[in-house]
């Protein structure tokens, strides 16, 4: 069987395109650097850019790890592949994407707003996942049991099959913006450490 030169070139070009799509991420880019309390679960996010009125939605999984001031939030697609890894410590924050691109910034909130188009409330999230207000900022308790903190409205949804003192199974978050109106739902599947 003989192939034409054009067919060989086309096959080679196709192979190069496929291989470049599988570009490798630098070794260690997604290695867990923080060891401590870990919370794993599912998330869904809906956000609307208030300037363009463009709406977006996404869902996937998350792995939250914290130890002291060091935090990591691994955002995964529905198949379990890392989409972005957000790290924050006393010295700064970074976000590393699936393609290996890394962006550094002062706070995780401004960094995620700039790179994802929506804010991830990383500093408050650790306390909220435990069913508590973040001790680092003022909180308002609303009549219906929700909390308002750092511009976010937080509703804790208990699991009826566990004691009332247990951390919440689900946390609903909303943020009016600007620059984006955000609704986020976190469902905790597993807790370990800390």
Keyphrases for this structure?
single chain; 194 residues; alpha+beta; outer membrane lipoprotein receptor (LolB), chain A; eleven-stranded antiparallel beta sheet; 3 helices; disordered N terminus
Order of helices and strands: HEEEEEEHHEEEEE
Indicate the percent of residues in helices: 10-25%
Shape descriptor reads globular
What percent strand?
35-45%
The domain tally reads 1
What average pLDDT do the residues reach? Answer: 83
Contiguous runs where pLDDT drops below 50 for at least 5 residues: 3-30
Question: What is the CA-atom radius of gyration, in angstroms?
Answer: 20 Å
How does this model look, in words?
By secondary structure, this protein is α+β, with helices and mostly antiparallel strands. The chain has a single domain (25-192), classed as Lipoprotein localisation LolA/LolB/LppX (outer membrane lipoprotein receptor (LolB), chain A). It has helices spanning 5-21, 108-116, 122-129; strands at residues 37-49, 55-67, 70-76, 82-89, 92-97, 102-105, 139-141, 147-149, 152-157, 170-175, 180-192. It has an 11-stranded antiparallel sheet with strand order 6-5-4-3-2-1-11-10-9-8-7, covered by helices on one side. Strand 4 (82-89) and strand 5 (92-97) form a beta hairpin. It is globular, with a radius of gyration of 20 Å. The protein starts with a helix and ends with a strand. 22% of the residues are buried.
């Amino acid at each position: 069987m003989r192939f034409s030169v054009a067919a060989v070139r086309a096959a080679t070009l196709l192979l190069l395109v496929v291989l470049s799509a599988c570009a490798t991420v630098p070794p260690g880019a997604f290695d867990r650097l923080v060891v401590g309390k870990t919370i794993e679960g599912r998330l869904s996010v809906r956000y609307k850019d208030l300037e363009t009125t463009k709406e977006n939605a996404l869902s996937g999984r998350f792995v939250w790890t914290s130890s002291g001031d060091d935090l990591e939030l691994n955002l995964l697609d529905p198949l379990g592949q890392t989409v972005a890894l957000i790290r924050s410590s006393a010295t700064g924050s970074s976000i590393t994407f699936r393609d290996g691109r890394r962006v550094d910034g002062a706070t995780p909130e401004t960094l995620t707003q700039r790179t994802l188009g929506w804010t991830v409330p990383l500093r408050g999230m650790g306390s909220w996942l435990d069913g508590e207000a973040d001790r680092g900022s003022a909180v308002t308790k609303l009549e219906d049991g929700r909390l308002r903190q750092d511009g976010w409205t937080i509703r804790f949804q208990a699991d009826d099959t566990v004691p009332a003192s247990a951390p919440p199974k689900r946390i609903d978050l909303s943020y009016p913006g600007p620059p984006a109106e955000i609704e986020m739902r976190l469902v905790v599947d597993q807790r370990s450490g800390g």
